[in-house]
What we know:
Elements: H1 3-17, H2 19-25, E1 32-38, E2 47-53, H3 71-84, E3 87-93, H4 95-101, H5 103-126, E4 132-136, E5 147-150, H6 158-181, H7 187-190, H8 196-205, H9 213-216
Parallel strand pairs: 1-4, 4-5
Antiparallel strand pairs: 1-2, 2-3
Helix pairs in contact: 3-6, 4-5
Amino acid sequence: MKKEEREQRMRQRLREMRLPEEALWEQGIRYIGGIDEVGRGPLAGPVVAACVVLPQDFDLLGVDDSKKLSEKRREHLYSRILERAVAWGIGRRGPEVIDEINILEATKLAMLDAAAAADEMLREKDGSTMEHVLIDALRLEALDKPQTSIIRGDSSSVSIAAASIVAKVTRDRRMIKYAEEYPGYGFERNKGYGTKAHYEGIREHGVTPIHRRNFLKNTGY
């Protein structure tokens, strides 16, 4: 595929992914937060959520569901997204909370923290707060804002896709640091997911403080 054709496809993809936001912008809603998380399935590490508020003229090509992108591409887009975002925030919950209240509720708490952080950034800029949030597949009952839950939102909303990239890069960087603290589990490669190398690491070295013990109950470890 020629460079021009590839760029044309990316521009079309961006137009499609802006549709949920444009429907709200046309109603006069200015600040829209896209919220997504990463890390609900791993055996180790935190669940991380991000909330990103994009400007209406956001035109960064290539933003999509983080799972569809290479690590190099995610890293590039991560920096560009944070440069262009009106506001953004990160939330996280560690294994001890996940074990105590379950992964879904821990995810919601991380999302609430991310939304609160984005709101704080907006308040510091001009005294505003988010007027609407778009969330990937979940509804946050504790968030007192108009919200829309979008199934596979990271593939159909540019704000949610941007949040998915920010959350993924944030968590991956954290897991790479954990790999230095807890060598032998392959965290720098598997990011805490249950790969063969990860299970071999547990057999050889035991369970670490960043493991989700409830996730290991039925695995024999």
